[in-house]
Amino acid sequence: MVKVYAGKYLRVNLTTRTWEDVPLDEHVVRQFALGSGYAAWLYWQEMDPDLPPLAPQNSLYVFNGLLTGTFAPTGCRTSWCARSPLTGIWGESNMGGHWGAELRFAGYDGIVIDGEADEPVYLWIDGTSGQVEIRPAHHLWGKGHYETFEVLRAETDPKAQVACIGQAGEHLVRYAAVAQGGIEHARMAGRTGMGAVMGSKRLKAVVVRGKERPQYADLKGFRNAVKADNAVIKEYAKGLSLLGTAGGVPATEEYGDLPLRNWRDGSWAQAYDISGQRIAETIFVKHTFCFACPIGCGKAVEIKTGPYRGVRGHGPEYETLAGFGGMLLNNDLESIAYINFLCNDYGLDTISTSASIAFAVEAFERGLLTEQDTDGLTLRWGDPETVIVLVRKIAFREGFGDFLAEGVRRMSERLGPASEPFAMHVKGLEVPYHDPRAFVDMAANYATANRGACHMESCGYWQGYGVQVPGLYYEPHADRFASREAGRMAKRYQDYLGLYNPLGLCRFIVKGHAGPDMIAELVNRALGWSWTAEDVYRTGERIFNLKRMINIRLGVRAQDDRLPYRLAHEPRPSGSAAGVLPDMESILKEYYEARGWDPATGIPTPHKLAELGLPQEAPSSLEERASSTGGKM
Which residue of 182, 188, 220, 373 lies most exposed, with the fewest beta carbons within 10 A? Predict the structure, then answer.
């Protein structure tokens, strides 16, 4: 059979400085695809729930999707997975750009990184010569993403792709990111702290260069399908192409979706000031594209006047604008662009960073923090200069930044019960910036998503904005404020969107009307499989349930599937979503029923696991795995 993917991954032990090529298990690929699906299967086999997340024995699993490196629309994504140092449960972050395609060209579908180096190192994978090296990185330790990117290209190959950590990862900030792409096209594996996992292993970067190209089962058919699909995607994703995700800011404010003042306010007249439309009018330089992308949602920007003059880099995305804008009531666009520039260089997740700062501002406002705690800083809304100081303090864990670097859940635990009503996280992951009081199906998703509060695990709010994807659109839930059917809709969207990381595709093509039939055809043409739309949903469901079982082993139960107090009990006071609250009891009852999970525990029932071909218990050792499964499910 012709393989689009390489059929192997690289396993590296940083403690012993050894590595080996490991063949993929084809049965597992059929069941879970690649990306976070294959990573979850490996972790399920190898996990030790008693080990803390940053223990050297915990592995970092980096896997391309099945179609990464192909010319499928957005075939560029890579999943970075491990037990999260922020949440303590399944950690997963996904990265676009060009690094994943280059890894595929170097002849690998993924990398598993074990152990801990005794000094800073970087990994150099030279697919042009077939060489793998672990090289010293003392000269890079302490440097940010941008400089590391340039130095390593100069040291290895000018066309190499570099994924690295900045100072935040080195200092084990719990929400540190992995970065790639350099200044103008910075792309981040942002959420759940995968940068801290790299930092704990003293791994500064992974550099890849290759020359191989995928071989397709039906090259002509695949090429024709991609050509037709790209035309559809471009037509329906024009807004993303023109303005990027930042173009959604005015609509989110209009729909009551934009978080304001740590989720307390309902309306904000200044939303347009920080929008993609305003970026286009003022600081826009050019569009940027990830590998094989027909959309080009990236926007390079340059600030030519004012206190941030001379800053040039990747423009802030929606979540960054919402976090450092609406959440903090800051309508200074250029300050947000500069803060984004800093976060991309330090390697910080902008959602968790901004949420942690917003939590601290409210705690200061309520007297739970004082200037004695904050290094003499007065924390207030609408003060970008103080935020800039805090971002650096977080990245280096300096003073008050050491407290902020722990994330909202741990900050709240230290401040005590008085802070719990405004601690905005689910299972330790800070809530992303779409309001479940504006799109109630997102309440079910946030409560149950496998990595904690995550909008990308379902993206169901897109339907509320009028995106009606063939084969995905959920007609019974036409009312975005209704709790009835919200649980079933969330399950449907989670199953579908849950396959995108394992396939290596960007979820933004869903906005371009990429439905399950389109995805099945791409897989079939590329790999020679015979998937239907039902296979797409079923594979996504199997992966979602496997990740749930990982979390069950890590202690997650039904009582953990809940929203922060504010989102469940305090309605927005104004705007188009004013007065709305999700009925969590009925939503979760409906959701568990649709999932086939025990409503009392939140654990998938034996019947559901058997239906999906999933095991009910994980082997306790690699020896048991070998004897009991023969390397297969």
Answer: 220
